[in-house]
Write a structure and sequence with these properties.
It is a single chain. The protein has 249 residues and is an alpha/beta fold. It has a single domain, classed as Aldolase class I (TIM Barrel). The chain is built from eleven helices and eight strands. The longest helix is centred in the C-terminal third of the chain and has 19 residues. The radius of gyration is 17 Å and the shape is globular. The structure holds phosphoenolpyruvate. The site of phosphoenolpyruvate has 13 residues, from strand 8.
């Protein structure tokens, strides 16, 4: 399976940041030929312009969230149809910052994933335990419950991605041991196989949480780690491309 590197810019980036995305786009075709797909999820304000600017470059784009409805009286929200219309390929749903800041439950995340699929987008469904849950020995149970509740009943092959992002590793510089990542990705893989059979086995599993050019090779060469969701290190082309080069070595 090709590796997938997705940058999540979160609430960062003015129009000037398109320059960084341009540098990443310039490397995307060559990356594709070496079985690495690059994508950037900019803030919604930049999604249409970035998508247009990167047509034909091999760099895909995504949104960071979508509403579960197609349209209507939801001030400030953006539907999956709008995300698709802006030129995106992916949409992140259920990021831990959305689950925490906007009280999104797995049931809501599942509806968002369904809306994304209906709009022709590939949802990147995020799951991950808090530090307290890991310390209480509940990490696997919490994550598998999120997988069960957030992944819709049906999706096409290649049409859905899961990102395992321990909440305590996001933006902190802390990274789980490779053994813990291996165990969690194995557990998610088994859960998907049990529920969906071969379709479940084909779902790409990304790791996210303080990935950088130094730790990427160790993390991304583990079994059932098919790529990374990258926050801070994706904001500058240099940082993001260091991750690309690390996994190509
Ligand atoms: C993220 O928020 O998706 C993320 C992985 O952030 P960071 O790489 O900065 O930890």
């Amino acid at each position: 399976m090709a590796k997938l590197l997705v940058g999540n810019w979160k609430m960062n980036g003015l129009k000037a940041a398109l320059y960084e995305a341009g540098l990443i786009a310039a490397a995307a075709k060559a990356a594709q030929s070496q079985s690495v797909q690059l994508a950037i999820c900019p803030p919604a304000t930049l999604l249409a312009s970035l998508s247009e600017a990167t047509i034909g470059t091999g760099l895909l784009t995504g949104a960071q969230d979508c509403h579960e409805k197609v349209s209507g009286a939801h001030t400030g929200d953006i539907s999956a149809t709008m995300v698709k219309d802006a030129g995106a390929h992916f949409v992140i749903v259920g990021h831990s910052e959305r689950r925490a800041d906007h009280h999104e439950t797995s049931a809501v995340v599942c509806l968002k994933a369904q809306a994304a699929l209906a709009a022709g987008l590939v949802p990147i469904v995020c799951v991950g335990e808090t530090r307290a849950e890991r310390e209480a020995g509940q990490a696997e149970a919490v994550v598998l419950a999120q997988v069960d509740g957030s992944v819709p009943e049906t999706f096409p092959e290649g049409g859905l991605v899961i990102a395992y992002e321990p909440v305590w590793a996001i933006g902190t510089g802390l990274v789980p041991s490779t053994g813990d990542v291996l165990a969690m990705h194995g557990a998610i893989h088994q859960r998907l196989v049990a529920r969906f059979g071969p379709l479940g086995a084909s779902v790409p599993l990304l790791y996210g949480g303080s990935v950088n050019g130094t730790n990427a090779a160790d993390l991304l060469h583990l079994d059932h780690v098919d790529g990374a969701l990258v926050g801070g290190a994706s904001l500058k082309a240099d940082g993001f491309l260091k991750i690309l080069h690390a996994i190509q070595e």
